[in-house]
Amino acid sequence: MTYTVKEIAEALGAQALGASSIRISGVAEPSDAAEDHLALAMKPEYAEALPKGRARAALVWDGADWQALGLEAAIIAPRPRFAMSGLTALMDRGEGWGEGVHPSAIISDSAILSEGVSVGPLTVIGAGARIGKDTRIGPQATIGADAEIGEACLVREGVRIAARVRIGDRVVLNPGCAIGGDGFSFVTPDLSNVEAARATLGDQADTETQSYVRIHSLGSVRIGDDVEIGANTAIDRGTIRDTVVGNRTKIDNLCMIGHNVVIGNDTLLCGMVGIAGSTRIGSNVVLGGQVGVSDNIFVGDRVIAGGGTKIFTKTPAGRVILGNPAVKMETQMNINRNLRRLGRLFDDVAALKKSVSNTDQSD
Amino acid sequence: MTYTVKEIAEALGAQALGASSIRISGVAEPSDAAEDHLALAMKPEYAEALPKGRARAALVWDGADWQALGLEAAIIAPRPRFAMSGLTALMDRGEGWGEGVHPSAIISDSAILSEGVSVGPLTVIGAGARIGKDTRIGPQATIGADAEIGEACLVREGVRIAARVRIGDRVVLNPGCAIGGDGFSFVTPDLSNVEAARATLGDQADTETQSYVRIHSLGSVRIGDDVEIGANTAIDRGTIRDTVVGNRTKIDNLCMIGHNVVIGNDTLLCGMVGIAGSTRIGSNVVLGGQVGVSDNIFVGDRVIAGGGTKIFTKTPAGRVILGNPAVKMETQMNINRNLRRLGRLFDDVAALKKSVSNTDQSD
Amino acid sequence: MTYTVKEIAEALGAQALGASSIRISGVAEPSDAAEDHLALAMKPEYAEALPKGRARAALVWDGADWQALGLEAAIIAPRPRFAMSGLTALMDRGEGWGEGVHPSAIISDSAILSEGVSVGPLTVIGAGARIGKDTRIGPQATIGADAEIGEACLVREGVRIAARVRIGDRVVLNPGCAIGGDGFSFVTPDLSNVEAARATLGDQADTETQSYVRIHSLGSVRIGDDVEIGANTAIDRGTIRDTVVGNRTKIDNLCMIGHNVVIGNDTLLCGMVGIAGSTRIGSNVVLGGQVGVSDNIFVGDRVIAGGGTKIFTKTPAGRVILGNPAVKMETQMNINRNLRRLGRLFDDVAALKKSVSNTDQSD
Questions:
Q1: Taking CB atoms and an 8 Å cutoff, what residues of chain C touch A11?
Q2: Residues of B in contact with A221 (CB under 8 A)
Q3: Which of A76, B92, B214, C80 is the most exposed place for a label (fewest CB within 10 A)?
Q4: Binary contact (A254, B252; C-beta < 8 A)
Q5: Which residues contact A268 (CB under 8 A, 6 or more apart)?
Q6: pTM of the model
Q7: How far apart are CA C7 and CA C22, in angstroms?
Q8: Per-residue pLDDT of chain A (363 residues; tens, 9 = 90+)
């Protein structure tokens, strides 16, 4: 599949300049570009590498002197990074799974597949499951009993969707993600040593030990529209009500969303974020890689947490936080600076003690 | 499946009060409850929401004035959270996989399936594997050659159990967990730069580089009775002996248990905990979310580690720890408080220096 | 399969002493060894347990008085840990998958399988995929369209290899790893609140909120020779160019390699390491368990990072680092020591203030 520079610009709502009938078969970084590639020269520093490649056309920044860069054609986008969305969607070659329902898929007679659904080889779709229009399901996925998946979703290879999970429209589920595992919820016959430790913060040398019994998860998982969930991420069922992920929220690889968690809309969870049970995360939140959030707390709207932040307490809306334990980013920056010069402070205090002691003795 | 309030109370060993013949089809939080739901009003603050729902019966705390709450029937449990275990087990609707062995499963002729075993579609069971009575295996799971699984286990969709792994009775394995990956064990022909760095703690600018070769894992994994393992968790084979998980130990999602690790009984590992190779974890230990434990150390019985704790050294029994690196929780709380007021300490010392310098000059 | 002590020693390039015709069926730790086991007594402290087992032969350290240890035969290796590599390779019983292509595998007509390839039950191999000589693929794996796998690889159960991924020779892929998920790359129509926060580090209470749209991943993943990838690890596609893992690099379980990341040769990533998008990691690097690396930075050759280190900034070659944020290991050790005695420093300064105040008053 190839497109002219003009067709690409139109698809992006951008401006085509120069020889806009040049046919493009792919996109490339400037130094790797072949003659039929659109080079991505969205900043002057990227454009410097254009002579190393053979691109005749490029996506350039607003105001670029594209002819001086040796190009025959250019696409100008006011926010080129945003244009990348449309451009990459256009050029995506897909997974090559083919159309229709593969004969090796095991689909319950009571499952309902809407028009345009494709199902890969060796996928299992359980009793009562419903799959919306134009949803593509890859090979070896599992769709549990009575699960519902919306329209135009992409369910990649080996995805696990448990019984009764509900998923919105245009959701992307990456390989191996598991939606609907058992919540991690156990209870001891009497007050446990964790409950005691939370009360006292003290050591537990003398507590009697007990065994845990399982609280089954009766709730399920509900995922909104336009959500993306990363490879091998795990989202657990709620205990009584559902675990919920809001619309347009994006969750990266290897994240863990505990039972009863509720996440708002337009939130980003980067790789390896963990949210413990019953915590609520607001909308437009961004949690960096390896962030952890304790159970049963609330993280407000528009909170931004840097990578590795551990959030133990309620966080007000709009706060930008960092560190373990999480504090305001500015505070953490000060702490880090102070830690680096702490050795000198010890030296200063030692000198002061000596000096004051001398002063005292000289009195 | 419905139960009367009386039947539920009997199953829980609890007390039924009022119109105990009301039929219950599910459980719900008070505000979400329909007429045939048992509301979970185990604390006064939960009970406040009862008027928002339509529950006629509820699970309430000992001493609750259930009639004043507008209920027609109540179940009273001395420790309601413990009652949740029996209640949710009773109400669990299960995975809807159906009974028996699905004809699409690929089961070796030499595998032995005991009475009451069910096997989901497209599951593979290898040569010499043995599956105990009443164990339910979901779709698309793998049971390796000569693996043994006990009685009444639940093996969810896409679980991977490698060759020779042994699993006890009543074990729950969540979707995508992988038991029996290769241990991460490599060796260089000569002393490696890591071994050198451990000896010197110094920088490695001049070390000669080497390539690693693999030490194969000849051991397997042995898992006790009543264990639960979370979604996409990975437990590696031992190098020579087995990696071991004790009885009644519960492991959450996305945990990593390295080769040769031995974990005791009744231990809880919350989400994303990582235990490096050859480390031993005691019994009745609780490791919070994202805790990490170094290789070749020992964490004693009844240790409790808060979320995000990084344990680098041997930890005595009963200790309650927090932080990176782990210290006693109380110590970490003091450190955190001191860090927040560290800026003022720098100011104080600067002022003191000035003051003492003036004093000195005034002498 | 059994070997004589002599055969084993020859395979290891080591020296056999004593009754070297003793037949060995396995290896064991000294206390667990049966009569036909080779005991691993590579250090004097291991050898102490020999009397508890029944080994007649052992792998011992250079200079060991093996006859005094009660052995009839011994293998002496100058670096016994290195000998473990050859020894365990020899004794590996494998996965028991059988030979050839299982009839239940779904293999595209246009896929090319070289000589000696074996494919497990219910594995899917897509159109145009190419599998090199003697590569063994386990049950229920997915090989995407146009993917290439080299020679003598081991692809374990449930591995997901996406379309167009290229993998070298002798690569080991552990259960459930996912190579070729979608990169976590999203963009807002206007400058996002994260971009603003990175610029200001300030709170975001007043920012207008926006929704994210997806940038598709057009690149793929390229993995070198002799790489090992752990169970349930996820490696994402690049946006335009490929994500790259160099030769002989070993990646443990549950690691996350973001889009566009480039990792050098002979690097070790321990369990749960996360590398954010577009970051470059050098060669001969070692990142301990749960290390995190920010996006768009560079970690130089031979860097060693202790467990739990969070790397936010460019790290020069050869540096040994620790902590959150990462600093030189020696610096972190000093910081940790200073933190533990910080309480006393506060006390000292309070005493000094009092003393100086008294001095001032006495003037």
A1: none
A2: none
A3: B92
A4: no
A5: A249, A250, A252, A285, A286, A287, C186, C194, C212
A6: 0.95
A7: 10
A8: 899 999 999 999 999 999 999 999 999 999 999 999 999 999 999 999 999 999 999 999 999 999 999 999 999 988 888 999 999 999 999 999 989 999 999 999 999 999 999 999 999 999 999 999 999 999 999 999 999 999 999 999 999 999 999 999 999 999 999 999 999 999 988 877 777 776 666 665 555 678 899 999 999 999 999 999 999 999 999 999 999 999 999 999 999 999 999 999 999 999 999 999 999 999 999 999 999 999 999 999 999 999 999 999 999 999 999 999 999 999 999 999 999 999 999 999 999 989 888 766 655
